[in-house]
Write a structure and sequence with these properties.
single chain, mainly alpha, Four Helix Bundle (Hemerythrin (Met), subunit A), 79% helix
């Protein structure tokens, strides 16, 4: 009888230590949650400001490509994504077609820069401005 008690006590103690080792690190305050840019929401004013910045970048890209300054144009292309990430979730939630139009335009302007095609860059910059104006008309700040 005594050996059963001892074995049972050892099993119980072992389970206690295993449970403590497995469950002791659940500190939810140290866990970080990240939100994908497409899921984040910005205010209407922030979206308007972001779109204003992006249309300006698009115009500057077109001007740089037309002037033959591919390095400047490439640097400007890199500035679109950070500005876009701040507002894209709101635009996607409000108007998926316009969201896709922006995504397509950003890819197209990058290709225009890569190809050194000033005409295409100007056309796409106009497409970006048209999409921004359309969005802001439907969703004013």
């Amino acid at each position: 009888m005594r050996s059963r008690f001892t074995v049972g006590l050892l099993v119980l103690l072992s389970l206690t230590f295993v449970g403590a080792a497995c469950g002791g690190d659940d500190d939810s305050s140290s866990a970080t949650t990240t939100t994908a840019p497409e899921e984040a929401r910005a205010s209407d004013a922030a979206v308007a400001a972001g779109l204003h910045a992006i249309t300006g970048i698009g115009d500057d890209i077109a001007a740089a490509v037309q002037a033959g300054d591919s390095a400047k144009a490439a640097d400007l292309v890199e500035k679109i994504e950070p500005a876009w990430q701040e507002i894209e979730g709101t635009i996607k939630a409000n108007d998926e077609d316009t969201y896709l139009a922006f995504e397509d335009a950003f890819a197209a302007i990058g290709l225009a820069v890569k190809d050194g095609d000033g005409t295409k860059a100007s056309t796409v910059a106009g497409d970006i401005r048209t999409a921004a104006d359309s969005y802001l008309e439907a969703h004013p700040a």
